[in-house]
Fold these 3 entries.
Entry 1:
Amino acid sequence: MFAKVIVNPAAGARATSRAWPKIKSILEGDGLPFDYQFTESAGHAAVLARKAAQDGYRILIAVGGDGTVSEIAHGLLSSGQAGTVALGIIGTGTGNDLIRSLGLSRDYNSACRLITSGYQKHAGRIEEWSTCIDAGWVEYTVGGERRTRYFVNGAGVGFDAEVADAASRVRWRLGHAAPFLMGLLRVLPLYRNKQVRLTIDGRIENRCVLSIVVSNGAYFGGGMKIAPTASLVDRKLDLVVIGDAGKLELLRVFPRVYLGTHTGHPKVRAEKVEDVAISSDERILLQADGEIVGEGPVSLRIVPQALRLVCKT
């Protein structure tokens, strides 16, 4: 079989399970040879992706949100087959920040047709209807054990990770940005800024920070343009450090994040980097592609041109 479709039926507050019959019909109607599997638990998409890549599938198609795409990308990149297998994305999640960063359509009809038209036009030669993008790699701690994983859109520690953790508990669907905003309101009253040690391309800094975001793509949190100059093909990560800002100061600058103008604030610093290490005497959570994966200390680096992505032809 040519393509493996990995479907997360729970994505988008279970909107994916409702959309899947239509998506399946479009892919079948356009002649794409594929089979599919549903994910059953956290981490399952990565397992399915790794096995599919090793079994010889030429395309892995993610049907779900940012977390689903991240898991599939991690499974593909850890399979050793990333150079010969392409990733297609049909976004049905809540935030869909990676799709925004990539400039792909958030309409699943268009996303399906992008994949199937490329297949028809290039007779399955994935090198002719795909492009290579950068990925990120991160090392972190879970239960005292050091672990590693790949990410695609971005990662962060501090306030944004605490908000992501709280947002993951928002179960109702109120729009793309609503879970993040609800998480922010839950975390903000009690959150305290963190003293951290930063190592940026070998340069060491000790700082008190609200949040540190390491972005490959421009968007996070359901449409916030956190790293306005980020590019998934520039072989760099965009480091955005929000310094020792108070709560009222944060609320004043927060609307500017949606426009990407927050980087002009005196307590916000953005720069292009290749590797970053973050440590603290305090507990710091790590989010990768919007999902809480572990705690610090954290090391992150760019993996240039690592992931082959189905794109416009």
Entry 2:
Amino acid sequence: MEAMKLAGHDNNFALLDMIEYPVVVVEPSSRIIYSNSSVETLLKGDCKDCYLSQMLLCKDGSPFELTPQLFKRKQPVRCVYQHGRTKKYLDVFIKESSPGKEPFYVISFVDVTSYVRREKALTEEAMTDPLTEIANRRRFMALFDKELNRADRNQSDLALLLLDVDHFKKVNDEYGHAVGDLVLKELSRVVKKELRDVDVFGRLGGEEFGVVLPGASLTKAHVVADRLRQLVKAAVVKVDGNYIGVTVSIGIIASKGKSSRDLLMKQADSALYSAKHSGRDTVSSFSVLATSMEETRVH
């Protein structure tokens, strides 16, 4: 790419073509007045006469703007560049021109896409239950907190369901842990398929699962819980000619506005305990507002 001169200056930036990594020179408005040959490969050659603020987004999603706070940073700025289906993560380094001269900025890029994707994959792995491929306990709690804060801000409904597989030890003892794992995977598949995208579903440990239903009242949560109970009961795993099915007991807690996560977990667990001790294959709900237990016994 042919070097361009900065209007009003004797500066010639052609030497920057000798640098292997991508470099651009921009005015304070972020208009690109020069780019070296490496930029064409990195940014698909679409930087001529463009504004960098229109091409890059900062990590938080805001446009890349040359503010004093930005170019005084000693650390690079993590940005996102997207062109069609191509998405790259870039570390952006900014150097201001010498004082007393017409201002311009020399900006260099390091492509960190592979690093970011690897980091995201590791984070996803650390937050996912390896058997069922749904959220693990840590991720579930983090997403639960997020939904609680949202419900608090909006003074909206929210419900929590705790599901526990009935007599799961018997399945493991009779058929083996490998079959027990298949049962948990099938349960997770059935439940996940029924839930909305906004719902939170995770494995809390062993044969216990949690579901958060944003915007759901106690009545709505009860309907969802009973539907999940029926779907799990109807699902079976075929192993060596044997059709293996399980049932679940479900405890529900519903809340509106500000609530404590620990308190809701404790109350949902109390409802689950009631369901377990009322014959299993049962939905039992606990209302924060009414502070009472409501139970649906399934015969």
Entry 3:
Amino acid sequence: MSGIPVERYSTASAAPGSGLAYWNTLAAETFNSLVVDTDDPAAFRGVMLRAPLGELSLMGANSAAARVSRISDPARAARGPRWFDIHFQLSGRSANLQGGREAVLEAGDFTLCDATRPYSVRFTEANHMLCIKAPQAALARRVGDVEQVLCRPVSGRSGPGAMLSAFLRSLWTQIEDQRDVGAPEAVADLVLDLVGLAYRPLREGQAARSAQELWLERARALIDERICEPDLGVAAIAEALGVTPRYLQMLFAQARCTPTAYILDRRLRLAADRLRRGEGKGVTDVAMAVGFNDLTHFGRVFRRCYGVTPRDYRDGRRAPHWKPAPAQERDGLSVLVLG
């Protein structure tokens, strides 16, 4: 035996049709302020393993497609210490979003999210993810300024990332099989050392980032925080950041986009997600809730991006072979919208 206590849970032990509710209870116990949602709650299936490893906490979740959201909890964030979640994709695919950044992970890749701030993870297919909770102090000793690498993907197919990927796969298999992994504290130190090594190339690249890139990142994060405000526009964003509208336009131009296009992209993503979930709300309610104040405009841009009307999308009649219209035909929306 490994000597590491492993807790195993499965929705198979839940009452029929209550698998998602059971899963949310597990998620809340493991990670505070975490909510899981899916298109078919009654059919949701999942298996979760939890295990301590020195100063780390490990959680492996093997589940059906789902959307995970960590909501804001200022009271908890004010209480120390600060923790981070290392998301390692064992199988399947995920899209991790936090602070205006998006990290798309394939099997073997990983990223880092701040567990004290809101973030979301989309799993569009059955998947298996290993989440490692690590205290800020332990990460900072290896990574330095954690904010620099937050929600930035690291490939597990080459370089130091491949070393960490191989080690985590082997470690998790041994923990699942209850085999001896050695001294937990020493193994936890090795995991963190490999995380630091894997992030070194990214940190070195970040050191050369320009002031414009940092301002663009702040602008995107601000938009994500205030996306549902109907009056959000170039002037409001520039005022909140303390820059001129012209400078803000220049920042987005470097990314081959505009502030207006970015806002539209984020609103359409959010609208599609809410329509997909239903929640008993009509198309008008959804459009207004995510910041649209012109229903005709909303219907037109939604159809151009998703190939169907918002109502058809809500009812599940989605374009099977949808291809996005050319950027110049999409009201300035130059960013591919993922449904």
